[in-house]
Design goal:
It holds the Pfam family Peptidase_Mx. By secondary structure, the protein is of the alpha/beta class. Helices cover 42% and strands 11% of the residues. α4 runs antiparallel to α8.
Length: 353
C-alpha cells in the first residue's frame, strides 16, 4: 500500500481517510490514479490533484461501508468498483451485521487495490455470469455461514470481523495467523486458479507437479484432514497445515502468502524501510524477479517480527518459507508475470467461460 498525500497541503493520509485532518479538504480515493483526490468546486477543482464535485462524489456505500472511493455523479448514487463486486450483504436494519460488513468491505478494498496493482484481471458477474467474481458477505448470527469460494463467488462469514470470535477460531484451529484480509487473499487465490491456470494446459501441468491434482475428491480430503490432521513433517513442504488438506487449498494458501509479501513490501518501500525496487511501480520482471522479492522479504519480515516482540506482540509474519514453498510461490509469481505481461494471455484470462 502506498503512502498517500493530501494534494492540497501535503499531509500524510491513511487509506481510510475521506477528509484531510490537517486542511479539512474533502477527499476521495481514485482507483484509476491510485491516489487521493480533493473533491472541490470552481477554480479549486482545476489543479491536478482535484476533481470537480459536479462530476465526482463518494461511493453509495459511504455510510453503509465507510467507503471513500470516488464514483461519477449519476442520477442515482453509484457503487465503486470494489463495492459493486458485493452481491449479498446484511439488511440495513441489522446494525451489528452492518458494522461487521463495513469492516469486511474495508479489507476488501485493500485486496482490490493490490489486484489492480498486480494487473490481475477482475471479471465481475456482469461480464461472466457463470464464473465472474462476486462476494456474499453474510452474518452467521441466525444461520450457518461457511467462508469459501465456488465458481467465482467468495462467501465470508462476517463474524470473522469480530476480534474475539476470530481469535477463538484461530486458537481452536491451531493457526498462527487469521485476519479478514487473509481470508480474502486466500479465497481470491481459488478464483485466480481458474482465471490464470484453469484454461492453460502448460500451467495446469506445472501446477499439478507442484501442488498435486486439483481435481482430487475434495470432501474426502476435507474429512481426512479434520480426522487425521496434517501429516508429520508437513512444515518442509507447505506454508501452513491447512495447505496440506487438498492441492486446491495448497495453491490458495500459497497465493495468499504471495499477496501478503508483495503488499507488505510495497508498504515498507513507501515508508522507506524497504528498497524502492519493492514497489509495484518497479515490477520485478523475468526469472530473477522472484529472487529479488524474497531477498528483500526475508530480512524485512525478520526485523518486523523482532519489532513486534519489542512491543509485546506476536510475530507479524509467523511463518517459515522452506525451499518447496518458495518453489510453489515462484510458480505463482511466474504465472502472474507472464499472464499480465502478455496481452493475449491477459485477454484469455479475462474472457468469460
Amino acid at each position: 500500500m502506498r503512502d498517500f498525500i493530501c494534494p492540497n497541503c501535503g499531509q500524510h493520509l491513511a487509506f481510510e481517510n475521506s477528509v484531510c485532518l490537517s486542511c479539512g479538504s474533502k477527499l476521495g480515493f481514485s482507483l484509476d490514479a491510485m491516489a487521493f483526490l480533493v473533491i472541490a468546486k470552481g477554480e479549486e477543482s482545476e489543479h491536478g490533484g482535484a476533481v470537480d464535485a459536479n462530476e465526482y462524489q463518494l461511493c453509495a456505500n459511504l455510510h453503509a461501508a465507510q467507503c471513500n472511493w470516488l464514483v461519477h455523479v449519476e442520477p442515482v448514487r453509484q457503487l465503486c468498483t470494489s463495492c459493486a463486486l458485493t452481491r449479498t450483504r446484511p439488511s440495513d436494519a441489522d446494525a451489528p451485521a452492518m458494522a461487521a460488513f463495513a469492516t469486511a468491505e474495508a479489507a476488501k478494498r485493500r485486496l482490490i487495490v493490490e489486484l489492480v496493482d498486480l494487473k490481475l484481471p477482475i471479471v465481475g458477474r456482469g461480464e461472466d455470469p457463470n464464473y465472474g467474481l462476486a462476494f456474499d458477505l453474510l452474518s452467521s448470527e441466525f444461520e450457518k455461514v461457511f467462508t469459501g469460494h465456488e465458481d467465482g463467488v467468495i462467501t465470508l462469514d462476517l463474524a470473522e470481523g469480530d476480534d474475539v470470535h476470530r481469535e477463538q477460531l484461530r486458537i481452536a484451529m491451531a493457526e498462527p495467523y487469521r485476519t479478514l484480509l487473509g481470508h480474502f487473499r486466500h479465497e481470491i487465490g481459488h478464483y485466480y486458479y481458474y482465471r490464470l491456470v484453469g484454461a492453460a494446459p502448460k500451467y495446469q501441468e506445472q501446477a499439478r507437479a507442484l501442488f498435486g491434482n486439483a481435481e482430487a475428491d475434495y470432501q474426502a480430503a476435507l474429512d481426512r484432514h479434520y480426522s487425521e490432521g496434517a501429516p508429520p513433517g508437513w512444515e518442509k513442504n507447505y506454508v501452513s497445515s491447512y495447505a496440506t488438506m487438498h492441492p486446491a487449498e495448497d495453491w490458495a494458501e500459497t497465493f495468499a502468502h504471495y499477496l501478503h509479501i508483495r503488499d507488505t513490501l510495497d508498504t515498507a518501500a513507501a515508508f522507506s524501510f524497504a528498497p524502492a525496487s519493492a514497489t509495484f511501480e518497479r515490477r520485478n520482471l523475468g526469472p530473477s524477479g522472484f529472487d529479488s522479492i524474497i531477498e528483500m522479504w526475508l530480512p524485512l519480515s525478520w526485523a518486523l517480527n523482532m519489532v513486534n516482540r519489542s512491543m509485546g506482540h506476536d510475530d507479524l509474519y509467523p511463518f517459515v518459507l522452506p525451499a518447496k514453498v518458495l518453489e510453489k510461490m515462484r510458480f505463482i509469481h511466474t504465472v502472474i508475470d507472464e499472464v499480465t505481461s502478455d496481452p493475449a494471455k491477459l485477454a484469455a484470462a479475462a474472457s468469460p467461460a
